Amino acid sequence: MVTLTIDNQQVQVEEGKTILDAAKKLGINIPTLCYLKEINEIGACRVCVVEVEGARTLSAACVTQVSEGMVVHTNTPRVQRARKLNVELLLSDHNYNCPSCIRNQNCELQEVAERVGIREIRFERGKSRYSKDESTPALVRDPEKCILCRRCVSVCEKIQTVHAVVPLERGMKTVIGSPFHETMAESPCIQCGQCILVCPTGALHEKEYTDEVWAALGDPQKHVVVQTAPAIRVAISEEFGEEPGTISTGKLVAALRRLGFDKVFDTDFTADLTIMEEGNEFLQRLQEGKNLPMMTSCSPGWINFIETFYPELLPNLSTCKSPQQMFGALTKTYYAEKAGINPEDIVSVSIMPCVAKKFESQRPEMNDSGYRDVDYVLTTRELARMIKQAGISFDMLPEENYDDPLGISTGAALLFGATGGVMEAALRTVYEVATKEPLEDINFYNVRGLDGVKEATVQVGDIAVKVAVASGISNARALMEKVKSGEADYHFIEIMCCPGGCIGGGGQPIPTNMEIRAKRMEGIYEGDSAMKIRKSHENPAIQTLYKEFLEKPLGEKSHHLLHTSYTPRNKM
User: Fold this and answer.
1) CATH says 211-562 is which class?
2) Which residues are catalytic?
3) Are 402 and 413 in contact (CB under 8 A)?
4) Helix (H, G, I), strand (E, B), or coil: what is residue 81?
């Protein structure tokens, strides 16, 4: 332990800790912009400078390690002047049209500028200008709002190992962009949006489709239906001041009805359907011994990754579409037929925790219904903005239920919102379908939690099924290397692109950190425990769907509407 003094208060911290760590222990909040614990600790923005007695210059608190007897001052006139100057310099090169910015009132640069007392900017902008990159259907990169903090670079490199954004040029011409100044669409970007979650400004954000959805809702000729992903219900209320993990399913449904959607359905319905198709596909592969380990295909960022970096392993992917895309295909076939509505008049909207879902919905193969299966994808953040635009008081809404028949689901489907959830839901069904016996305990605790990689062995009849679960692309990459080398002897692997799974998706409320992910995950498991039906194969609406329309899992119609193929994308 090291003893030091900060602002006349003594504190003890472990050797190797920083001044920032020690100050937090005393309840002293030093402002930061570029700092991300254990991910981006580079002292680039210089907003966290402090005065250390005996040091010639001010020190960056986020990277300066403590030493025995150190005396630190965090709020002297010299420190205040330096912080103010540094923020002023950042703002002098920043497009500060704050009222029209997507991050207005949720911007760390705004907060720090207010905290250090910025009232004027004495310097003129002089940096080379770079144009906005809107080349992908999922996200937008705006260099004029970038403060060069490199958070996005660190997350893309260390957490996702994709290297889609890097520092380019030098000095005043420095810009964060795709390698060789390519567009994001040309880069290896998997469109996961983890960079958006850590960006302190509006330099990276989702591509908005709220105007298009408002137009559809205002068109009397259109029948607009909406589906909501499992992870939305434990995150949406954060945008209205509630604690992370608060289950807001009923209020979410009520809000969507008041926005004008004709039918409010649940993606959990097709999560159950995914388990029926994927579970039977796994049992078939297990019996035949082909293309094992089978890997899940629900996460579009993960699909983009394997298509780009491991195309040789594409045969191992489940051929199942994601629940979003299954839902879109059924909306314009099964639902249209039952409701007597021309599919041309249906607008299918989904609310997702993920920006990669925007890309997925626009993949050219996603039109097996004869139309574009999902027309528009909105993130949790976009939906919150629509609710606010409509003047709806979210906290005052009543609890309402989803519409039938595509609103009936199980606890297993809700688990899709958290890492390990798809695996747990699949095992509940695979075990009972294969053995014809009920599970003694349907909770598979070994695949739960925020660990990057989890493993389990489940006895299914005579076979000891070995499974693995990974979230975050760096962990997925490690598993893929094991599969390629032959080290892995798994039968079934679940991959979620984002750390923690969909609860930590790139379209979720900002901030999203590991503590918040943990609370959202608790909400998911609480919701599962409260459900009357907790196994996908026991969903009565799914049973009816097969009886009336699909006939059987892996049948001809199921293959046409619910399954797909994948495309190698490695341009090298």
Assistant:
1) alpha beta
2) 278, 281, 298, 318, 357, 360, 365, 502
3) no
4) helix
Least Cα distance to 73 among 167, 152, 9 occurs for 9
Q: Round to whole Å and give the CA distance between 84 and 114.
A: 10
Residue in the structure block whose two tokens are 């006895």 = 459
- In tens, the pLDDT along 106-157 reads 999 999 999 999 998 888 776 668 899 999 999 999 999 999 999 999 999 9
**Which pair of structure tokens corresponds to residue 381?**
């953040």
Measured between alpha carbons, how far is residue 290 from residues 130, 135, 527, 551 in Å? 50, 38, 36, 25
Alpha carbon of 417 to those of 172, 317, 421, 447: distances in Å?
A: 43, 20, 7, 13
Residue 193 has pLDDT above 70, yes or no: yes
Nearest 5°: the CA angle 132, 138, 142 is 20
Give the C-alpha separation, 225 to 548, whole Å.
21
Please give the helix or strand (H or E) that residue 288 lies within, else none. helix 267-288
CATH classification number, 2-91, choose in 3.40.5.50, 3.10.20.740, 3.40.30.10, 3.50.50.60: 3.10.20.740
pTM: 0.96
pLDDT tens digits, 41-56: 999 999 999 999 999 9
Tens-place pLDDT, residues 235-277? 999 999 999 999 999 999 999 999 999 999 999 999 999 999 9
- The domain ranges of the chain are 2-91, 127-207, 211-562
